[in-house]
Amino acid sequence: MTTPVETFENAVEAVDLELRYGSHVVLEPSSFTAPMGAITALIGPNGAGKSTLLHSMVGLVDPTSGQISVMGTSPQQARKQVAYVVQSKEINQSLPLTVGQVVAMGRYPNRGMIKPMRIDDKARVLEAMERMNITDLSSRHLTELSGGQRQRVFMAQGIAQDHRIMLLDEPLTGLDVVSAEAVDRTIHQEITHGCAVLVSTHDLGEAGTADHVLLLGDRRVVSGPPSEVLTSENLLAAFGAGLMHI
What is the pTM for the complete model shown? Predict the structure, then answer.
């Protein structure tokens, strides 16, 4: 008998959440939600705290005050159900890892690093590579890949993980057309599977097509549908008069 999956209205919920790095206030007390089964765009100017907020959702940054919950529990307890895909930049040239090995790491949170891969684990890895169109790259080393190909590899790693939430830190930045289309397609596929996707972006157009928006500006979060959040008043407060002039 299959155990029913617990349902939640919100993937992430924050109440008076405050975040700091040392004495620097990154986020003043803010309350917001990010719904399940939806794409939430996390947008704001550089340095507004988008990455810090994502870190708090996986328990890498603890609140100074207030609280943040992920699927009704703490970020640390929910971590195994959250796939966090960071923007692929420089990689360690000394690590002799192939594409297949990197994608297979997506099974570690639930299987561990030592246990051998089962048939279903291998199937999940293969499916993830097929979805990102990187199966033919399986035996190649990461250093042999373009930036767009590497981003697809790390997306596949996230897909291979057992998850109900996917966090993406600027996944489309600097990608070639083929890779950007693959990433965008995957984001929408995740929603059809009932997952929640939170995407950090600096693109207002991209944020406008999301189901929900978290706008970071002036060290606070404005949360809601794009039509209610991406107003001239809110954008002016977040980005300043320069953007509004453009």
Answer: 0.89
